[in-house]
Amino acid sequence: PRIYTWAIFWLLIRWTLAYQAYQDSIPNGKKVPNPCRANQFWNGVGHQSPLGGGVNNAFGKDFLAAGKVWTVALCQKDSDGDGKTNGAELGDSACVWTVGAAPAMTTGITHPGVCEPIGSAICAGKNKWVECGVRTKLNCTVFYEPETTNLAVRLPETDVPAKESSYVCMKYELPQNGVYHMVAVEPIIGTQNVVNQMFLYGCSDMQNANIVVNNPYVCPLTPAVQCTELLAMWTVGAPGRCFPALAGFKIGTSGYRYVTLQVHWSNPELVTTLKDNSGMRLYYTPVLRQHDAGVLVTGQRDLQIPPGELDFNVVGSCTSACSTEILTGSIWLTSSTIRMHRIGIYQQVAHNRNGSLLRYLNGEAFSYINYTSRVYPQPIEMKPGDELKTSCFYRSDKRHKTTQYAEGTYHELCENHLIYYPKSNVRSLSCLQWGTLSSCELKQDIVRNCPYKTFFKANAAADILQTVDLIKQNCAADGTCRKECKGAVRTARTHPCLQGDIGRKIRKDSLKLTDSKEKYRAMLFYAELNSCSTPLVK
Protein backbone atom coordinates (compact mmCIF):
# COMPACT_ATOMS: atom_id res chain seq x y z
CA PRO A 1 0.00 0.00 0.00
CA ARG A 2 1.09 3.57 -0.67
CA ILE A 3 1.11 4.58 3.02
CA TYR A 4 3.32 1.62 3.93
CA THR A 5 5.73 2.37 1.09
CA TRP A 6 6.14 6.01 2.11
CA ALA A 7 6.52 5.01 5.76
CA ILE A 8 9.45 2.79 4.82
CA PHE A 9 10.94 5.58 2.71
CA TRP A 10 10.81 8.16 5.49
CA LEU A 11 12.21 5.64 7.95
CA LEU A 12 15.19 5.25 5.62
CA ILE A 13 15.57 9.03 5.49
CA ARG A 14 15.56 9.16 9.29
CA TRP A 15 18.25 6.48 9.41
CA THR A 16 20.35 8.48 6.98
CA LEU A 17 19.99 11.63 9.08
CA ALA A 18 20.72 9.66 12.25
CA TYR A 19 24.07 8.25 11.14
CA GLN A 20 25.27 11.78 10.33
CA ALA A 21 24.74 12.82 13.95
CA TYR A 22 26.56 9.70 15.16
CA GLN A 23 29.45 10.39 12.77
CA ASP A 24 30.14 13.55 14.78
CA SER A 25 30.12 11.52 18.02
CA ILE A 26 33.27 9.55 17.17
CA PRO A 27 36.69 10.69 15.93
CA ASN A 28 36.99 10.79 12.13
CA GLY A 29 33.42 9.53 11.89
CA LYS A 30 33.02 10.95 8.40
CA LYS A 31 36.31 9.53 7.13
CA VAL A 32 35.94 5.81 7.80
CA PRO A 33 36.89 4.05 4.55
CA ASN A 34 34.89 1.26 2.95
CA PRO A 35 37.21 -1.79 3.00
CA CYS A 36 35.42 -3.11 -0.09
CA ARG A 37 35.62 0.06 -2.20
CA ALA A 38 38.73 2.20 -2.36
CA ASN A 39 38.07 5.96 -2.36
CA GLN A 40 34.64 5.54 -0.74
CA PHE A 41 33.47 5.92 2.86
CA TRP A 42 31.39 3.68 5.13
CA ASN A 43 29.01 6.39 6.32
CA GLY A 44 26.93 4.19 8.63
CA VAL A 45 29.99 3.25 10.72
CA GLY A 46 27.98 1.28 13.28
CA HIS A 47 25.86 -0.60 10.75
CA GLN A 48 26.33 -3.55 8.43
CA SER A 49 25.10 -1.38 5.57
CA PRO A 50 27.55 1.34 4.44
CA LEU A 51 24.54 3.67 4.16
CA GLY A 52 23.47 3.22 7.78
CA GLY A 53 20.25 1.80 9.14
CA GLY A 54 19.34 -1.81 9.74
CA VAL A 55 21.49 -4.33 11.59
CA ASN A 56 24.38 -3.05 13.71
CA ASN A 57 27.89 -4.41 13.29
CA ALA A 58 30.10 -5.24 16.28
CA PHE A 59 31.25 -1.64 16.74
CA GLY A 60 27.67 -0.39 16.46
CA LYS A 61 26.58 -2.74 19.25
CA ASP A 62 29.41 -1.55 21.48
CA PHE A 63 28.59 2.08 20.63
CA LEU A 64 24.97 1.52 21.70
CA ALA A 65 26.12 -0.16 24.92
CA ALA A 66 28.28 2.90 25.66
CA GLY A 67 25.22 5.15 25.42
CA LYS A 68 26.09 6.37 21.91
CA VAL A 69 29.02 8.41 23.19
CA TRP A 70 32.78 8.05 22.79
CA THR A 71 34.11 6.75 26.09
CA VAL A 72 37.55 5.58 27.17
CA ALA A 73 36.19 2.05 27.52
CA LEU A 74 34.75 2.09 23.98
CA CYS A 75 37.98 3.60 22.66
CA GLN A 76 40.10 0.86 24.26
CA LYS A 77 37.88 -1.96 23.05
CA ASP A 78 38.64 -4.01 19.92
CA SER A 79 35.09 -4.40 18.60
CA ASP A 80 35.90 -6.19 15.35
CA GLY A 81 38.62 -8.46 16.78
CA ASP A 82 41.41 -7.50 14.39
CA GLY A 83 43.98 -6.74 17.09
CA LYS A 84 43.57 -2.94 16.97
CA THR A 85 41.58 -0.88 19.43
CA ASN A 86 38.68 1.22 18.21
CA GLY A 87 40.71 4.31 19.11
CA ALA A 88 43.70 3.16 17.07
CA GLU A 89 41.44 2.51 14.08
CA LEU A 90 39.74 5.90 14.35
CA GLY A 91 42.84 8.04 14.97
CA ASP A 92 42.54 8.40 18.78
CA SER A 93 45.06 5.87 20.14
CA ALA A 94 45.43 7.82 23.41
CA CYS A 95 41.65 7.89 23.93
CA VAL A 96 41.59 11.62 24.66
CA TRP A 97 39.32 12.86 21.84
CA THR A 98 36.19 14.87 22.65
CA VAL A 99 33.30 15.94 20.44
CA GLY A 100 34.22 18.96 18.34
CA ALA A 101 37.97 18.53 18.79
CA ALA A 102 40.39 17.62 16.02
CA PRO A 103 41.52 13.96 16.18
CA ALA A 104 45.21 13.29 16.82
CA MET A 105 45.40 11.44 13.49
CA THR A 106 43.34 12.00 10.35
CA THR A 107 45.10 9.56 8.02
CA GLY A 108 45.43 5.80 8.14
CA ILE A 109 41.87 5.45 9.44
CA THR A 110 40.38 1.94 9.35
CA HIS A 111 36.94 0.52 10.08
CA PRO A 112 36.33 -0.36 13.78
CA GLY A 113 33.46 -2.69 12.87
CA VAL A 114 35.05 -4.68 10.03
CA CYS A 115 37.95 -7.02 10.77
CA GLU A 116 40.85 -6.17 8.49
CA PRO A 117 42.59 -7.28 6.39
CA ILE A 118 39.49 -8.97 5.04
CA GLY A 119 40.33 -12.60 4.24
CA SER A 120 43.30 -12.77 6.63
CA ALA A 121 43.73 -15.56 9.19
CA ILE A 122 42.98 -13.26 12.13
CA CYS A 123 39.66 -12.29 10.52
CA ALA A 124 38.51 -15.83 9.69
CA GLY A 125 34.79 -16.13 10.46
CA LYS A 126 34.45 -12.54 11.65
CA ASN A 127 33.23 -10.90 8.44
CA LYS A 128 30.54 -13.29 7.25
CA TRP A 129 28.10 -10.40 6.89
CA VAL A 130 30.45 -8.26 4.79
CA GLU A 131 29.64 -8.23 1.07
CA CYS A 132 32.53 -7.09 -1.09
CA GLY A 133 32.02 -6.92 -4.86
CA VAL A 134 29.77 -9.81 -5.92
CA ARG A 135 27.16 -10.66 -3.29
CA THR A 136 26.69 -14.35 -4.02
CA LYS A 137 27.80 -16.72 -6.72
CA LEU A 138 25.40 -16.82 -9.63
CA ASN A 139 23.59 -20.15 -9.90
CA CYS A 140 21.26 -20.50 -12.90
CA THR A 141 19.49 -23.73 -13.82
CA VAL A 142 20.70 -23.26 -17.39
CA PHE A 143 24.26 -23.88 -16.14
CA TYR A 144 23.35 -27.55 -15.73
CA GLU A 145 21.96 -27.99 -19.23
CA PRO A 146 24.51 -29.90 -21.36
CA GLU A 147 23.98 -27.65 -24.39
CA THR A 148 24.96 -24.47 -22.52
CA THR A 149 28.35 -22.97 -23.27
CA ASN A 150 29.95 -19.64 -22.45
CA LEU A 151 32.39 -17.06 -23.69
CA ALA A 152 34.26 -14.24 -22.00
CA VAL A 153 33.74 -10.74 -23.37
CA ARG A 154 36.42 -8.78 -21.54
CA LEU A 155 39.00 -6.09 -22.02
CA PRO A 156 42.64 -6.94 -22.54
CA GLU A 157 44.88 -5.43 -19.87
CA THR A 158 44.08 -1.74 -20.40
CA ASP A 159 45.37 1.48 -18.83
CA VAL A 160 42.78 3.26 -16.69
CA PRO A 161 42.86 7.03 -17.43
CA ALA A 162 43.85 9.36 -14.61
CA LYS A 163 40.35 10.85 -14.68
CA GLU A 164 37.62 10.91 -12.09
CA SER A 165 35.18 9.18 -14.43
CA SER A 166 35.81 7.53 -17.80
CA TYR A 167 34.28 5.03 -20.19
CA VAL A 168 36.04 2.48 -22.35
CA CYS A 169 34.36 0.32 -25.00
CA MET A 170 35.27 -2.72 -27.05
CA LYS A 171 33.38 -4.41 -29.89
CA TYR A 172 33.26 -8.18 -29.87
CA GLU A 173 32.12 -10.68 -32.48
CA LEU A 174 29.68 -13.35 -31.27
CA PRO A 175 29.55 -16.93 -32.59
CA GLN A 176 28.45 -17.04 -36.23
CA ASN A 177 27.90 -20.78 -36.57
CA GLY A 178 24.24 -20.86 -35.58
CA VAL A 179 21.39 -19.19 -33.71
CA TYR A 180 21.49 -19.06 -29.93
CA HIS A 181 19.77 -17.55 -26.95
CA MET A 182 21.91 -15.76 -24.39
CA VAL A 183 20.43 -16.98 -21.12
CA ALA A 184 22.71 -15.63 -18.38
CA VAL A 185 25.57 -13.20 -17.75
CA GLU A 186 27.98 -12.79 -14.87
CA PRO A 187 30.74 -10.26 -14.21
CA ILE A 188 34.44 -10.83 -14.63
CA ILE A 189 36.06 -8.30 -12.31
CA GLY A 190 39.64 -7.30 -12.99
CA THR A 191 40.59 -4.33 -10.81
CA GLN A 192 37.76 -4.19 -8.31
CA ASN A 193 38.38 -0.72 -6.92
CA VAL A 194 37.91 1.14 -10.20
CA VAL A 195 35.09 -0.73 -11.95
CA ASN A 196 31.76 0.95 -11.22
CA GLN A 197 29.48 -0.36 -13.93
CA MET A 198 29.52 -2.47 -17.08
CA PHE A 199 27.06 -2.54 -19.96
CA LEU A 200 26.62 -4.95 -22.85
CA TYR A 201 25.01 -3.46 -25.96
CA GLY A 202 23.68 -5.40 -28.92
CA CYS A 203 24.72 -4.09 -32.34
CA SER A 204 21.75 -4.30 -34.69
CA ASP A 205 23.25 -3.25 -38.04
CA MET A 206 26.97 -3.76 -38.32
CA GLN A 207 27.18 -5.28 -41.81
CA ASN A 208 28.30 -2.04 -43.44
CA ALA A 209 30.03 -0.54 -40.43
CA ASN A 210 33.77 -0.23 -40.10
CA ILE A 211 34.14 -2.90 -37.45
CA VAL A 212 37.30 -3.18 -35.37
CA VAL A 213 36.90 -5.90 -32.76
CA ASN A 214 38.86 -6.62 -29.59
CA ASN A 215 40.31 -3.10 -29.55
CA PRO A 216 39.46 -0.92 -26.50
CA TYR A 217 38.69 2.72 -27.17
CA VAL A 218 37.48 5.70 -25.16
CA CYS A 219 33.78 6.03 -25.87
CA PRO A 220 30.87 8.43 -25.27
CA LEU A 221 27.78 7.63 -23.22
CA THR A 222 26.25 5.59 -26.03
CA PRO A 223 29.03 3.52 -27.60
CA ALA A 224 27.91 3.61 -31.27
CA VAL A 225 24.81 4.47 -33.26
CA GLN A 226 24.52 0.82 -34.28
CA CYS A 227 24.99 -0.47 -30.71
CA THR A 228 22.25 1.03 -28.56
CA GLU A 229 20.24 -2.03 -27.50
CA LEU A 230 21.14 -2.72 -23.88
CA LEU A 231 21.25 -6.48 -23.28
CA ALA A 232 22.83 -6.63 -19.84
CA MET A 233 24.28 -4.39 -17.18
CA TRP A 234 26.31 -4.86 -14.04
CA THR A 235 26.70 -2.57 -11.06
CA VAL A 236 28.75 -3.00 -7.89
CA GLY A 237 27.46 -5.89 -5.80
CA ALA A 238 25.62 -7.72 -8.57
CA PRO A 239 26.22 -11.46 -8.95
CA GLY A 240 25.06 -11.39 -12.56
CA ARG A 241 21.71 -12.29 -14.05
CA CYS A 242 19.81 -15.44 -15.00
CA PHE A 243 17.34 -14.52 -17.73
CA PRO A 244 13.73 -15.78 -17.57
CA ALA A 245 13.08 -19.42 -18.39
CA LEU A 246 10.74 -18.57 -21.28
CA ALA A 247 13.02 -16.05 -22.99
CA GLY A 248 16.58 -15.24 -24.02
CA PHE A 249 18.45 -12.64 -26.04
CA LYS A 250 18.95 -13.95 -29.57
CA ILE A 251 22.54 -13.96 -30.81
CA GLY A 252 24.29 -15.47 -33.83
CA THR A 253 23.41 -15.63 -37.50
CA SER A 254 19.85 -14.32 -37.11
CA GLY A 255 20.35 -12.36 -33.90
CA TYR A 256 22.99 -10.00 -32.57
CA ARG A 257 26.22 -10.73 -34.44
CA TYR A 258 28.27 -8.18 -32.52
CA VAL A 259 28.12 -6.66 -29.06
CA THR A 260 29.87 -3.70 -27.49
CA LEU A 261 31.17 -3.98 -23.95
CA GLN A 262 31.26 -0.67 -22.08
CA VAL A 263 33.14 -0.38 -18.79
CA HIS A 264 32.74 2.64 -16.51
CA TRP A 265 35.82 3.39 -14.43
CA SER A 266 36.02 5.66 -11.39
CA ASN A 267 39.48 6.95 -10.46
CA PRO A 268 38.89 9.94 -8.14
CA GLU A 269 42.47 9.86 -6.85
CA LEU A 270 43.73 10.25 -10.46
CA VAL A 271 46.12 7.32 -10.08
CA THR A 272 48.27 6.92 -13.20
CA THR A 273 49.34 3.28 -12.79
CA LEU A 274 45.99 1.47 -12.77
CA LYS A 275 45.12 -1.23 -15.29
CA ASP A 276 41.96 -3.29 -15.75
CA ASN A 277 40.71 -6.26 -17.76
CA SER A 278 37.11 -6.56 -16.57
CA GLY A 279 34.22 -7.84 -18.66
CA MET A 280 31.27 -10.23 -18.72
CA ARG A 281 30.86 -13.96 -19.19
CA LEU A 282 27.96 -14.76 -21.51
CA TYR A 283 26.13 -18.08 -21.27
CA TYR A 284 24.26 -19.19 -24.38
CA THR A 285 22.46 -22.24 -25.75
CA PRO A 286 21.23 -23.54 -29.14
CA VAL A 287 18.07 -24.72 -27.37
CA LEU A 288 15.98 -21.65 -28.13
CA ARG A 289 13.46 -20.41 -25.60
CA GLN A 290 9.85 -19.66 -26.49
CA HIS A 291 10.42 -15.89 -26.77
CA ASP A 292 13.11 -13.34 -27.54
CA ALA A 293 13.80 -11.03 -24.58
CA GLY A 294 14.20 -7.26 -24.62
CA VAL A 295 14.97 -4.39 -22.25
CA LEU A 296 12.63 -1.41 -21.89
CA VAL A 297 14.01 1.77 -20.30
CA THR A 298 11.66 4.13 -18.49
CA GLY A 299 12.28 7.24 -16.38
CA GLN A 300 13.22 10.91 -16.76
CA ARG A 301 16.03 12.44 -18.85
CA ASP A 302 15.64 16.09 -17.78
CA LEU A 303 17.34 16.37 -14.40
CA GLN A 304 18.14 19.61 -12.57
CA ILE A 305 18.74 18.61 -8.94
CA PRO A 306 19.51 21.66 -6.78
CA PRO A 307 22.18 21.44 -4.05
CA GLY A 308 21.30 21.24 -0.37
CA GLU A 309 18.28 18.92 -0.72
CA LEU A 310 17.51 15.94 1.53
CA ASP A 311 14.82 14.26 -0.58
CA PHE A 312 14.45 15.96 -3.96
CA ASN A 313 11.88 14.17 -6.13
CA VAL A 314 11.90 13.77 -9.92
CA VAL A 315 9.16 11.99 -11.87
CA GLY A 316 9.19 10.58 -15.38
CA SER A 317 6.57 8.42 -17.06
CA CYS A 318 6.06 5.96 -19.82
CA THR A 319 2.73 7.60 -20.54
CA SER A 320 -0.44 5.78 -21.48
CA ALA A 321 -0.37 7.41 -24.92
CA CYS A 322 3.23 6.39 -25.49
CA SER A 323 2.79 2.78 -24.37
CA THR A 324 -0.23 2.55 -26.69
CA GLU A 325 2.02 3.67 -29.53
CA ILE A 326 5.01 1.41 -28.87
CA LEU A 327 3.30 -1.79 -27.68
CA THR A 328 1.66 -3.94 -30.36
CA GLY A 329 0.38 -6.35 -27.71
CA SER A 330 0.93 -7.33 -24.09
CA ILE A 331 4.43 -7.89 -22.78
CA TRP A 332 5.51 -9.70 -19.62
CA LEU A 333 7.97 -7.96 -17.29
CA THR A 334 10.41 -10.28 -15.51
CA SER A 335 12.76 -7.97 -13.62
CA SER A 336 13.46 -4.36 -12.70
CA THR A 337 16.86 -2.70 -12.23
CA ILE A 338 17.42 0.82 -10.87
CA ARG A 339 19.91 3.13 -12.56
CA MET A 340 20.81 6.16 -10.49
CA HIS A 341 24.15 7.54 -9.34
CA ARG A 342 25.82 8.78 -6.16
CA ILE A 343 23.09 11.01 -4.70
CA GLY A 344 20.19 8.72 -5.58
CA ILE A 345 18.54 7.31 -2.43
CA TYR A 346 15.21 5.77 -3.47
CA GLN A 347 13.15 4.82 -6.51
CA GLN A 348 9.58 3.68 -7.03
CA VAL A 349 7.86 2.66 -10.27
CA ALA A 350 4.06 2.70 -10.21
CA HIS A 351 2.23 0.51 -12.73
CA ASN A 352 -1.08 2.23 -13.57
CA ARG A 353 -3.95 1.13 -15.79
CA ASN A 354 -6.92 3.30 -16.75
CA GLY A 355 -5.77 5.91 -14.23
CA SER A 356 -5.66 3.49 -11.28
CA LEU A 357 -2.69 1.96 -9.49
CA LEU A 358 -2.21 -1.75 -10.15
CA ARG A 359 1.04 -2.29 -8.27
CA TYR A 360 4.52 -0.96 -7.62
CA LEU A 361 7.13 -2.63 -9.80
CA ASN A 362 9.78 -1.66 -7.27
CA GLY A 363 10.17 0.47 -4.18
CA GLU A 364 13.70 0.18 -2.87
CA ALA A 365 16.19 2.33 -1.06
CA PHE A 366 19.09 2.84 -3.43
CA SER A 367 22.83 2.81 -2.87
CA TYR A 368 25.27 3.49 -5.68
CA ILE A 369 27.71 0.97 -4.20
CA ASN A 370 25.16 -1.84 -3.96
CA TYR A 371 23.19 -3.54 -6.71
CA THR A 372 19.47 -2.73 -6.65
CA SER A 373 17.35 -5.09 -8.71
CA ARG A 374 14.12 -7.02 -8.32
CA VAL A 375 13.25 -10.28 -10.08
CA TYR A 376 9.52 -10.97 -10.15
CA PRO A 377 8.40 -14.43 -8.93
CA GLN A 378 5.84 -14.41 -11.74
CA PRO A 379 6.04 -12.29 -14.92
CA ILE A 380 3.88 -9.15 -14.79
CA GLU A 381 1.68 -8.31 -17.76
CA MET A 382 1.92 -4.81 -19.21
CA LYS A 383 -0.78 -3.89 -21.72
CA PRO A 384 -0.85 -1.16 -24.38
CA GLY A 385 -2.15 1.97 -22.64
CA ASP A 386 -0.62 1.15 -19.26
CA GLU A 387 1.45 3.85 -17.57
CA LEU A 388 4.78 3.32 -15.78
CA LYS A 389 5.43 6.27 -13.46
CA THR A 390 9.01 6.40 -12.16
CA SER A 391 9.73 8.51 -9.06
CA CYS A 392 13.39 9.10 -8.17
CA PHE A 393 14.60 10.68 -4.93
CA TYR A 394 17.97 12.34 -4.38
CA ARG A 395 19.96 13.63 -1.45
CA SER A 396 22.18 16.54 -2.55
CA ASP A 397 22.99 18.19 0.78
CA LYS A 398 26.74 17.66 0.19
CA ARG A 399 26.66 19.18 -3.28
CA HIS A 400 27.29 22.87 -3.99
CA LYS A 401 26.09 22.96 -7.58
CA THR A 402 23.06 21.73 -9.49
CA THR A 403 23.38 18.10 -10.59
CA GLN A 404 22.26 17.39 -14.14
CA TYR A 405 21.43 14.34 -16.24
CA ALA A 406 24.42 12.51 -17.71
CA GLU A 407 26.23 9.18 -17.40
CA GLY A 408 29.23 10.51 -15.45
CA THR A 409 29.70 9.33 -11.86
CA TYR A 410 28.91 12.78 -10.44
CA HIS A 411 25.99 13.41 -12.75
CA GLU A 412 22.66 11.67 -12.18
CA LEU A 413 20.20 9.30 -13.80
CA CYS A 414 16.56 8.48 -13.19
CA GLU A 415 16.02 5.24 -15.06
CA ASN A 416 14.54 1.81 -14.56
CA HIS A 417 15.51 -1.06 -16.86
CA LEU A 418 12.84 -3.72 -17.32
CA ILE A 419 13.58 -7.09 -18.93
CA TYR A 420 10.52 -8.34 -20.79
CA TYR A 421 9.25 -10.71 -23.45
CA PRO A 422 8.29 -11.05 -26.27
CA LYS A 423 10.60 -8.50 -27.86
CA SER A 424 8.48 -8.52 -31.04
CA ASN A 425 5.65 -6.71 -29.23
CA VAL A 426 7.67 -3.53 -28.60
CA ARG A 427 8.59 -0.94 -31.24
CA SER A 428 11.02 1.11 -29.14
CA LEU A 429 13.95 0.61 -26.76
CA SER A 430 12.66 3.25 -24.33
CA CYS A 431 9.46 4.81 -23.04
CA LEU A 432 10.34 7.81 -20.89
CA GLN A 433 10.17 11.58 -20.66
CA TRP A 434 12.31 14.68 -21.09
CA GLY A 435 10.50 17.12 -18.83
CA THR A 436 6.85 16.71 -19.82
CA LEU A 437 7.74 15.57 -23.34
CA SER A 438 7.37 11.84 -23.95
CA SER A 439 9.92 9.89 -25.96
CA CYS A 440 7.12 9.13 -28.42
CA GLU A 441 6.46 12.84 -28.96
CA LEU A 442 10.15 13.54 -29.55
CA LYS A 443 10.27 11.02 -32.39
CA GLN A 444 7.74 13.10 -34.32
CA ASP A 445 8.68 15.92 -36.70
CA ILE A 446 6.22 18.34 -35.09
CA VAL A 447 5.90 18.47 -31.30
CA ARG A 448 3.24 20.68 -29.72
CA ASN A 449 2.88 22.67 -32.95
CA CYS A 450 6.65 23.10 -33.22
CA PRO A 451 8.80 21.56 -36.01
CA TYR A 452 11.65 21.44 -33.53
CA LYS A 453 14.09 19.30 -35.51
CA THR A 454 14.49 21.98 -38.19
CA PHE A 455 14.42 25.15 -36.09
CA PHE A 456 17.95 26.25 -36.99
CA LYS A 457 18.09 24.87 -40.52
CA ALA A 458 18.27 27.22 -43.49
CA ASN A 459 15.08 25.65 -44.91
CA ALA A 460 13.07 25.94 -41.68
CA ALA A 461 9.36 26.73 -41.87
CA ALA A 462 8.44 30.27 -42.93
CA ASP A 463 7.07 31.26 -39.51
CA ILE A 464 10.31 30.14 -37.85
CA LEU A 465 12.43 32.11 -40.32
CA GLN A 466 10.24 35.16 -39.70
CA THR A 467 10.65 34.80 -35.93
CA VAL A 468 14.43 34.43 -36.18
CA ASP A 469 14.60 37.42 -38.54
CA LEU A 470 12.43 39.51 -36.19
CA ILE A 471 14.96 39.02 -33.41
CA LYS A 472 17.90 39.59 -35.74
CA GLN A 473 16.51 42.92 -36.99
CA ASN A 474 15.66 44.29 -33.54
CA CYS A 475 18.16 42.82 -31.07
CA ALA A 476 21.94 42.94 -30.70
CA ALA A 477 24.19 39.96 -30.08
CA ASP A 478 26.84 42.02 -28.26
CA GLY A 479 24.85 42.40 -25.04
CA THR A 480 23.39 45.80 -25.90
CA CYS A 481 19.73 46.01 -24.89
CA ARG A 482 17.90 47.91 -27.61
CA LYS A 483 14.54 49.44 -26.74
CA GLU A 484 12.86 47.87 -29.78
CA CYS A 485 14.22 44.43 -28.81
CA LYS A 486 11.83 44.04 -25.88
CA GLY A 487 8.75 44.20 -28.08
CA ALA A 488 10.33 41.85 -30.60
CA VAL A 489 11.09 39.32 -27.86
CA ARG A 490 7.50 39.49 -26.59
CA THR A 491 6.25 38.68 -30.06
CA ALA A 492 8.86 35.96 -30.68
CA ARG A 493 8.07 34.16 -27.44
CA THR A 494 4.51 33.55 -28.58
CA HIS A 495 5.90 31.08 -31.13
CA PRO A 496 5.29 27.45 -30.03
CA CYS A 497 9.00 26.62 -30.44
CA LEU A 498 9.96 29.15 -27.78
CA GLN A 499 7.50 28.00 -25.13
CA GLY A 500 7.62 25.46 -22.33
CA ASP A 501 9.63 22.27 -22.41
CA ILE A 502 9.92 22.14 -26.18
CA GLY A 503 11.56 25.58 -26.09
CA ARG A 504 14.02 24.36 -23.45
CA LYS A 505 14.69 21.17 -25.42
CA ILE A 506 15.53 23.09 -28.61
CA ARG A 507 17.93 25.32 -26.70
CA LYS A 508 19.62 22.38 -24.96
CA ASP A 509 19.93 20.44 -28.21
CA SER A 510 21.45 23.49 -29.90
CA LEU A 511 24.56 22.97 -27.77
CA LYS A 512 25.10 19.61 -29.50
CA LEU A 513 24.60 20.74 -33.10
CA THR A 514 27.37 19.42 -35.36
CA ASP A 515 26.64 21.50 -38.46
CA SER A 516 28.77 24.65 -38.08
CA LYS A 517 26.26 26.92 -39.83
CA GLU A 518 23.34 25.69 -37.73
CA LYS A 519 25.41 26.03 -34.57
CA TYR A 520 26.32 29.62 -35.49
CA ARG A 521 22.65 30.50 -36.15
CA ALA A 522 21.70 29.06 -32.77
CA MET A 523 24.43 30.90 -30.85
CA LEU A 524 23.59 34.19 -32.56
CA PHE A 525 19.84 33.78 -32.05
CA TYR A 526 20.05 33.10 -28.31
CA ALA A 527 22.58 35.90 -27.79
CA GLU A 528 20.16 38.31 -29.45
CA LEU A 529 17.08 36.86 -27.74
CA ASN A 530 18.65 37.30 -24.30
CA SER A 531 20.36 40.65 -24.93
CA CYS A 532 17.95 42.43 -22.59
CA SER A 533 18.64 40.78 -19.26
CA THR A 534 16.30 43.08 -17.32
CA PRO A 535 12.66 41.92 -17.00
CA LEU A 536 10.44 42.94 -19.88
CA VAL A 537 8.07 45.80 -19.06
CA LYS A 538 4.46 44.83 -19.58
From TrEMBL:
Domain Copper type II ascorbate-dependent monooxygenase N-terminal: residue ranges: 153-270
Residues covered by the Temptin Cys/Cys disulfide domain: 17-114
Signal sequence annotation: 1-18
Keywords, in A-Z order: Disulfide bond, Glycoprotein, Signal
The Copper type II ascorbate-dependent monooxygenase C-terminal domain, residue ranges: 292-427
Keyword Disulfide bond attributed: yes
Superkingdom per UniProt: Eukaryota
Pfam families: Cu2_monoox_C, Cu2_monooxygen, Temptin_C
Keyword Glycoprotein: yes
Stated name of the protein: Uncharacterized protein
Organism of origin: Sinanodonta woodiana (Chinese pond mussel)
